[in-house]
Amino acid sequence: MANKKILVVPGDGIGKEVTAVGKLVLDAIAQKYHHQFSYDTALIGHVAIEATGTPLPDESLTKMKQSDAVLFGAVGHPKYDNDPTAKVRPEQGLLKMRKELGLYANIRPIKLFDELLDASSIKPEILKGADILFFRELTGDIYFGEKGRKNNGNTAFDVAEYSRYEIERIARKAFEAARTRRKKLCSVDKANVIETSRLWREVVQQVALDYPDVTVEHQFVDATAMLLIKEPTRFDVVVTANLFGDILTDEASQIAGSMGMLASASIGDGTGVYEPIHGSAHDITGKGVANPLASILSVALMLDISFGLTTESNAVIAAVDAVLKAGYRTRDIANSSTQAANIVGTEQMGQLVLAYLK
Ligand code: NAD
Ligand code: IPM
Ligand code: MN
């Protein structure tokens, strides 16, 4: 029996709606497999700014550090998206959480459930068999370098920085994962132009010497963006820098059918954070239509990676698969041939997964 302290951090927008469902799935797993999961919650993002004036209060950070795992939703609010001059922003909370918890590896699996072959705008024959594991570096790059204005505010700059050590540790994680899969690693950079990318390529080439069983390919990010759509099945494990990884995985979500399908694990040396890759989606907030499967699949990653509960993790994935096989779809993964009666909302989708789990 596992005894775990889980911190639920819903954040903003649909973050609240989807983590509520994720938590129900954790409850069902605890009940079925006789584990003891205890929960607490913490504020982050816009809701934290409203309540405390800061996007990641110290109290939230302390709770995160004291938990066995964090189930995170999303942050963001249109108020800040449309005000480039705002000094305090929800996203700062997310970045601070990643930095303070040392979450340098963001693992984003792009796995297409067979039943969703026709949910994507990409042709089924191109998609069939696509299964990519992204390793996005998460605590460096242009996100965390010095930023500011000069020239009386008329010039802006963001410094991109990477150290050898930062590149090496994410590269090693990706190589280790490739070893357990199809033994192919694609390292994505822009070494033809950018200095941090040149260091990136140099370090990955060096690390590769320790993994002679893994075939390594180096690609420029612009080509990767194209190849992901042209031939997604050519990829196995992909490792890349923070900004490139952010952009490429939103693109790759279309291989899996929707942003609402993509889960992620953010890991480092301490508490792991499990989060959908999508944002607070204010266009659909409060409508009860958000796809909760990304949050549910993030729970599956938590059970596996942080708790080592692989049977339980596989049971969650199998339940999702069963619900999709039965034909149920949230709006984002439905298509013109989906029967109207099979189009369900956030809570209903959650209940269906729970029913298959039990
Ligand atoms: P978004 O991911 O919130 O939404 C993009 C599109 O995908 C929207 O049309 C949305 O409705 C759809 N979508 C996203 N998740 C879905 C789900 N579960 N089910 C169905 N449809 C879904 O990205 P955005 O619109 O560019 O950003 C909105 C806000 O979220 C911004 O403030 C941004 O900073 C923030 N954001 C936060 C995170 C995070 O917290 N990890 C990630 C991305 C964006
Ligand atoms: C993500 C988001 C964040 C990122 C933003 C909201 C800071 O897009 O989690 O993918 O860029 O990392
Ligand atoms: Mn993103």
TrEMBL record:
Mg(2+) binds at residues 222, 246, 250. One of its GO terms (cellular component) is cytosol. Keywords: Amino-acid biosynthesis, Branched-chain amino acid biosynthesis, Cytoplasm, Leucine biosynthesis, Magnesium, Manganese, Metal-binding, NAD, Oxidoreductase. SUPFAM superfamilies: Isocitrate/Isopropylmalate dehydrogenase-like. Its EC number is 1.1.1.85. Binds 1 Mg(2+) or Mn(2+) ion per subunit. Its cofactor is Mg(2+); Mn(2+). The keyword Plastid does not apply. Residues 5-353 form the Isopropylmalate dehydrogenase-like domain. Belongs to the isocitrate and isopropylmalate dehydrogenases family. LeuB type 1 subfamily. This is 3-isopropylmalate dehydrogenase. The gene is leuB.
